[in-house]
Design a protein that fits this description.
2 copies of one chain form a homodimer.
Chain A (H helix, E strand, L loop, with lengths): L20 H9 L5 E2 L12 H14 L1 H5 L8 H12 L10 E4 L1 H13 L5 E6 L3 H7 L5 E8 L2 E2 L1 H5 L11 E3 L13 H14 L3 E4 L23 E6 L11 E4 L5 H12 L4 H11 L3 H27 L5 E2 L7 E5 L6 H10 L2 E2 L1 E2 L12 E5 L5 H22 L6
Parallel strand pairs in A: 1-12, 3-4, 3-6, 6-7, 7-8
Antiparallel strand pairs in A: 2-9, 4-5, 8-9, 10-11, 11-14, 13-14
Helix pairs in contact in A: 2-10, 5-6, 5-9, 11-13
Chain lengths: 406, 406
């Protein structure tokens, strides 16, 4: 007996799910000996292993039954209160009952898309933007609107022109601090202009802030959420200041949206592991991050500085880049005629990896861009990696261009 | 300046997200002093706290950097291998590369719906069925087809009649072992008949098996997946045999579906906490569950027996129920004229809680049904709780029916 029809019929949205280029690259570059500037992997030297061990022990001694049982979908209340207080300290207006604990801030993106995105509705994103956000939103089948950006962030006039009429631009996704991938921080004036433009267009914002604490020169301006509480969903994470393997993030939502986000959370995984929430709360409750985060800043600042020096030294003329003042990434535009995707295998052959910038665009990728992470390698390794990268790039330019620009 | 239009525009699917009745009831019944037969909360006495503590310590001593770093979306390979071997031991044909580790098996339901369900496509469910599955599927906007069931499970003739033509019944969701909420186990003959009917209709199956290890009389027949590997997605969980607060489950998928489920997983939360995966692997790797699960069975068997005795003693005539041979729940049909939703507040007033069965139907709820969990309370508490439940029920029958049936 043969059948004409397939047994399994994937949903239409499945066609919009694709392997993460980034994660595929990470697999290749996981090989021993590869100097990887590809992944945004925090340095494991920053993981507070001793504090974690003490906290695990304490939680399993004092509240094992609560920590290992099913728990509230909203999250562990003391942790929600900590988050609210922490954000109030940064000028935001937040109560604990607006804080939803998520399984990493990636889950926040998934929940936001589920609650706000209908198939065919526009969602505005920066160009370039965080690849994981594009992947989280895509299954809900939005039409992406790419907002052109300059060195200060998305252009307010493009935001002001976003449509509000049905089906309505459901939100604009924006990463104001040390953006992944571009590294740029949005200055005070651009934040104000962006908010004004978003209000004018009646387009609410989803503000993603995983890197805000990782500033190396001066702290970034106040969050967008602090300027427009009713118009911004705010996403935060413990991945960069503690450890990503715990998968702990949070969403702060305007009150009118919180119940639907909570229901989406219940349906998605019932709740984020209560054990992890209690362990992290034990680690941070008495001000641990006040001492810990500055040590991360010092480490990454030195690595950022090493990358700045190395890029200055090794990149060929025609390369455009700016050292970021925070975060994890340096964004480089290669000389004319370069294709970063074609460059990658050549770099990997020489033992160096990076991410072609094309991965970070919803439309019209710029093939000349690359994202270099400076948080995983030591300063010495960064010097070596960038030297090799520069060497491969120069060779690539010579090979591919019969008459190379000097 | 006033605006006519709302700032936030929820997606159409948000209208299908509702507060979990179950979780709302759990909040009420969390009050101290309430004897709750409502939640399916495993007894905390079964949580292997000492083994967990030793495992946390070992993981944080030996592999802290790996356990706390970003990790593969597929899951921790040794844990995937353990799952595959464990399932092969139960007669299934599974390789580790078909095992996707999920953030609880609830997430498996979310991923399956994302990959397979288009708005308006039919999804078949049992009547009654697991509420959390209805909630996980609903955001993808299926049309539910409720399959009538008898004491052996869903009726094969109803399954055989499911439509395969476009948009196609995307799958039938089925819980063969000690179903939540009904407690029934599907016998061998019904499994074979169900598979035959599903093959005839070309409707694949999603088999959810959180309770399979919790048998108290005889082990259940072989899984559906072992009978039709290419036509069944299988979901498993560590919540009932270790602890739910770790949020660890898994999906076993036919090879053609695995890549899309993996991509949906990446987009949903990048990966399940690697720390939790490594800790659980440490706990179970050397056969811990072979000793541990029988102790859970002994405990719950005694509680099941207590509930059987108490129900026999305290339920009024006209009540219909059968003690389950495994799992966590006893399903009771109350005498004619009873409305379990109306009964609940009266029971709570007397210090006892349960879940009205109406919550577990996609269509046409039976208002006379209730679900009673026997895993959270001790045998003595079960006797007390059921005695109060019986007393409230008898009073309810007298109050609401001027001429009560004797």
């Amino acid at each position: 007996m043969t059948f004409e029809l397939p047994l399994w019929n994937p949903a239409r949205r499945a066609a919009r799910m694709n392997p993460s280029i980034l994660r595929e690259i990470l697999k290749v570059t996981d090989r021993p000996g590869i100097l990887s500037m590809a992944g945004g992997l925090p340095s494991p030297d920053t993981f507070p292993v001793e504090a974690m061990r003490a906290a695990c022990d304490k939680v399993l001694r004092e509240t094992p039954r609560e920590a290992l049982q099913y728990a509230a979908s909203e999250g562990f209340m003391p942790l929600r209160e900590w988050v609210a207080k922490h954000l109030r300290g940064q000028g935001m207006t937040v109560d604990a009952d607006q804080v939803l604990i998520t399984t990493g801030s990636q889950q926040g993106l998934d929940l936001v898309a589920k609650v706000l995105v209908d198939a065919g509705a526009p969602v505005a994103v920066e160009a370039p933007t965080y690849l994981g956000a594009l992947q989280a939103f895509a299954p809900m089948e939005p039409i992406f609107a790419s907002i052109p950006s300059d060195a200060d962030g998305p252009l307010p006039e493009a935001v002001a022109a976003l449509p509000h009429d049905a089906p309505g631009t459901r939100f604009m996704y924006v990463l104001p601090n040390f953006q992944n991938p571009s590294g740029r921080v949005m200055p005070e004036a651009r934040r104000e202009a962006l908010i004004a433009a978003a209000k004018q267009a009646r387009v609410p914002l989803v503000e993603d802030n995983p890197y805000g604490d990782l500033w190396y020169d001066t702290p970034p301006p106040k969050t967008l959420a602090s300027r427009w509480p009713e118009g911004v969903i705010y996403l935060g994470s413990f991945s960069k200041v503690l450890a990503p393997g715990l998968r702990l993030g949070y969403v702060v939502a305007p009150r009118e949206l919180f119940p639907k986000l909570l229901q989406a959370k219940q349906a998605a995984d019932l709740h984020t592991p209560g054990f992890n929430q209690r362990v992290v709360y034990e680690v941070i409750r008495d001000g641990f991050l006040d001492q810990h985060v500055p040590t991360i800043r010092d480490r990454y600042r030195a690595q950022r500085d090493a990358m700045r020096e190395a890029l200055t030294q090794h990149l060929p003329p025609g390369s455009v880049w700016q050292a970021p003042s925070g975060g994890m990434f340096c964004w480089v535009r290669l000389p004319e005629g370069c294709d970063a995707v074609a460059l990658l295998p050549k770099a990997v052959d020489e033992g160096v990896a990076f991410v072609p910038g094309a991965a970070f665009y919803a439309h019209a990728p710029d093939p000349r861009t690359v994202r270099l992470s400076f948080v995983t390698l030591t300063p010495d390794q960064i010097h070596t990696a960038v030297a090799i990268f520069g060497m491969v790039l120069k060779r690539h330019l010579t090979e591919d261009q019969p008459e190379p620009t000097p």
